[in-house]
Design a protein that fits this description.
alpha/beta; Rossmann fold; AdhesinB; transport; signal; Zinc ABC transporter substrate-binding protein; ZnuA-like
Length: 280
């Protein structure tokens, strides 16, 4: 299967547009849909590259983009719920909306609230890819075998990446880390890593001096020497904590860039960086 590095947002054949146009919320979901749909599907991206979905505010251009779509792929769990208003504003209330968290074993982020960062688990991603294939087939029955085969082939790529990281984990000198926010909980679960603490308990939250002092003590108790930071969040508190504990700051990009950076390459880069840090 040809792995898409670039997905054309509008492709014309014989003067007519592709039969199916769908929209997805974040860059990783856009790419997963594109990997399965390939040239039978046009993918419209609703949350732009570089934006933080936790704080992003839709614009009129987002409504215009949503108006192009025959169906929508969202994370769900409240993560991209604001896009439901965009879908209604675009006059697409009757269009199918596929929530890709629906068949996953979820973790709790806050009491009574599931952690929405489902795509950062390669094991979850394999289920998501298969669900995307079924969803696209429901919209385009003639393409069912095409979508299922693409999903099978891409799932193999994700399985290989998963197996590689499993072997890397066995070489780690430490399996503990502190995170900017709770985006790596599924990843930690999959590989037996320990997310010791989360710095940003809510979007824009900054730990108090007292909380930072408690984190210093906790990191020493747990032997955590790695702080994972993300380009979408402030690193101010993380830098202070790193200076106090002599820990390393490790960049992990949960969102990447669509269509420039395919999901499997984004995850490979992130996992290589994390593995190097945890090997010590």
């Amino acid at each position: 299967m040809k792995i898409l590095g670039v997905v054309t947002l509008l492709v014309l054949f014989g003067g007519s547009a592709l039969a199916l146009t769908v929209a997805a919320s974040i860059p990783p979901l856009c790419d997963l849909v594109a990997q399965v749909g390939q040239d039978r599907v046009t993918v419209v991206q609703l949350i732009p590259n570089g934006a933080n979905p936790h704080t992003y505010e839709p614009t009129p251009s987002d409504v215009m983009k949503a108006a192009q779509a025959d169906a929508f792929f969202l994370v769900g769990l409240g993560f991209d719920a604001f896009l439901e208003k965009v879908i209604r504003a675009a006059g697409k209330e009757g269009a199918p909306v596929f929530y890709l968290s629906s068949r996953l074993e979820l973790l709790e982020e806050h009491p009574g609230e599931a952690n929405p960062h489902i795509w950062l688990s390669l094991k979850n991603a394999r289920i998501i890819v298969r669900d995307i294939a079924q969803a696209l087939a429901s919209l385009d029955p003639e393409g069912k075998s095409f979508y299922l085969e693409n999903a099978r082939a891409y799932t193999e790529i994700l399985e290989e990446l998963d197996a590689w990281f499993e072997k890397e984990v066995a070489t780690f000198s430490s399996r503990s880390f502190v995170a900017t926010h709770a985006s790596l909980s599924y990843l930690a679960r999959d590989y037996g890593l320990e997310e010791v603490a989360v710095l940003e308990k809510a979007p824009g939250y900054e730990p108090s001096p007292k909380e930072l002092a408690e984190l210093v003590t906790l990191m020493k108790e747990k032997g955590a020497r790695v702080i994972v930071v993300e380009p979408q969040f402030s690193v101010k508190a993380a830098r202070v904590l790193a200076e106090e504990t002599g820990s390393s700051l490790v960049w992990f990009d949960p969102l990447g860039s669509f269509p420039d950076l395919p999901y499997h390459r984004l995850m490979r880069q992130n996992l290589e960086t994390l593995a190097e840090a945890l090997k010590g």
